[in-house]
Amino acid sequence: MNAVATLGARTLGVLRSFGHAAVFFIELLRATPAALRRFGLVVTQIHAIGNLSLLIIVASGMAVGFVLALQMYYALVTYGATESLGLIVNLSLVRELGPVVAALLYAGRAGTSLTAEIGLMKAGEQIAAMEMMAIDPRSRVLAPRFIGGVVSMPLLAILFSAVGILCAYVVAVLLIGVDAGNFWSIMQSRVDVWRDVGNGIVKSFVFGIICTAVALYQGYETEATPEGVAYATTRTVVISSLAVLGMDFVLTALMFSTA
Amino acid sequence: MRECFEHRAKLVSSAGRALLNNNPRRSRAGHDGLKPDHLIEIDHVTFGYDASRNILNDVSLSFERGKVTSILGASGCGKTTLLRLIGGSIAATGGEVRFDGEAVDAHDSERLFRLRRRLGMLFQFGALFTDLSVFENVAFPLREHTDLPEALIRDIVLMKLNAVGLRGAAPLRISEVSGGMARRIALARAIALDPELIMYDEPFAGLDLISMGVAANLIRTLNDVTGATSLVVSHDVPECMAISDHVILMAAPGRIVAQGTPKELMNSTDPEVRQFVRGEPDGPVKFHYPARPIGEDFGVSKGATA
Fold first, then answer.
1. What is the pLDDT of residue B36?
2. A169-200: string of b/e by CB count within 10 Å (b at 16+)?
3. Of the segments A83-87, A105-109, A121-125, B82-86, which one has the largest average pLDDT value?
4. Euclidean distance between CA atoms B92 and B56, whole angstroms
5. I need a surface site. Which of A90, B219, B282, B295 has the fewest CB within 10 A?
6. Residue B151 above 50 pLDDT?
7. Measured between CB atoms, which of B116, B128, B145 is closest to A132?
């Protein structure tokens, strides 16, 4: 009987937290238009979230581009299909690796930073002080960060893919000797701007919403103690990563089905 | 140069008037001379963070307009909870809190924010925005709530900082100021919009004797100069007794032990009041937290008590 009661209580707890998160997200969306009118705050956040994530995004894009070109070359050379290298690298990056890896890196770099910042603001009573000054923290603190994250994420994913393709070019063409004309021309002829690049950008936009909303929610609802902030940052990475991977499967199925 | 200064002074003065004209404290006059004019009324309020334990039990209080009222009591007796109820951060589980005759409804955010524009609060550790400078912290409510030109905001901020003796600290970062300075900066921020009610949550906690004296004087002086109503929550007896018009003594679990002028409380013969104002470790308020008999905990005898 106790086990049933515990299970019931846990289920209710999970449902309650889902409902709470949904209400938070709706309130965040409602606060967004007001934040857009104060564009200076948004620009500051795009700088903090986007610009300061550039290093890790570029470095990771380079590494993925190098490795992807090498691995694809080893696989394709067996079948004499190295002319498809550019196409495979490009599609892998713009459809999947760019949005997904950039989102995972974003959750680790910018998401944790957002959670810790909001959590510490809460612990230091800055959020409470703002509320007592009749200033809605959702509009003043959360919404500019949300917009900053949602704008930055697709840009970071595009940059990740672009750097990856350039580094794949360096490895494949300059180091291995794959034909440069082949590398670029197959990309031009077989990669569709809307279907491939566009859907990749839509994916990264969705991931941006997920990762930023999760980070802000975790920070805003954290227990205002050092342990609370530590747990919240961990939860940000875990929940964002799982949500991105799960949503990627759903989006891929919807976007690239041949039917 | 002088003309420029005079022009600025006029602007500051007219902006101040504009802010004050929006201020019901002035427009309502308040003092009708027939009855005591209470800005805040706590009417049979009960509150608990969870259903099993009440922090406040059927508390009724009123705070007179234009006076400094101190709420004293040991930690955990519900003093800060009372401030949070007045500010609408939490909702009473029973009874009603009224601000200038209007019920404080923690669930109606629009009304609540309208009410909060009429009050300022000094948090225990200042709650300053660490990403902003001292100047920007004080300018924050002005920028958020008014469309005043930059030159005017600058003048008002410097005036407020001057009032707390920190005009020279305006360009500093928050990480560069001491705890006492942070408290004064937070006070300057709290009075930036000339609030009707200023609430102080433990304004003397963690301050050295000089800073404590400075803070106490500031609370009294600002109250007299601005005509605001001040509510000080503290457990520092001498400072509160020195600056208050009225003192309320609370004890756990959320009950009012005594209230009156500082002199009345200092001369009280009530054992609980005497214990608190004299700082005696044991008395009606027990030193030990309720526990089972000590013998049971150490397994040495039955019936031994703590």
1. 54
2. bebbbeeeebeeebbeebbeeebeeeebbebb
3. A105-109
4. 9
5. B282
6. yes
7. B116
Question: Which range is most confident: A93-107, B47-61, B94-108, B222-236?
Answer: A93-107
Cα(A161)–Cα(A166) distance, integer angstroms: 9
What's chain B's Rg over C-alpha atoms?
22
Give domain limits for chain B. 2-26+64-88+108-280
Structure confidence at residue B303 (pLDDT): 52
Helical pair A2-36 and A199-220, crossing angle rounded to 10 deg: 110
Q: Which of A128, A131, A135 sits opposite B144 (nearest CB)?
A: A135
Q: Which of B261, B291, B257 is nearest to B275 (CA)?
A: B257
At A83-118, the pLDDT tens digits run 899 999 999 999 999 999 999 999 999 999 999 999
Q: How far is A64 from chain B (nearest CA, A)?
A: 36
CB neighbours of B275 closer than 8 A, spacing ≥ 6? B282, B283, B284, B285
For residues A30 and B36, which has the higher predicted lDDT (pLDDT)?
A: A30
User: Pairing mode, if any, of strands B229-234 and B197-201?
Assistant: parallel
**What tokens were used for A190?**
């077989």
- Options 2.40.170.10, 3.40.50.300, 3.40.50.2020, 3.40.50.10070; CATH for B2-26+64-88+108-280 is 3.40.50.300
Cis peptide before B24 (omega within 30 of 0): no
Cβ of A128 within 8 Å of Cβ of B145? The answer is no
- What is the pairing mode between strands B119-122 and B197-201? parallel
Fill in the DSSP letter of residue B42. E
Residue B247 three-state SS: strand
Q: Is the ipTM of this complex over 0.85?
A: no
Cβ B113–A132 below 8 Å, yes or no? no
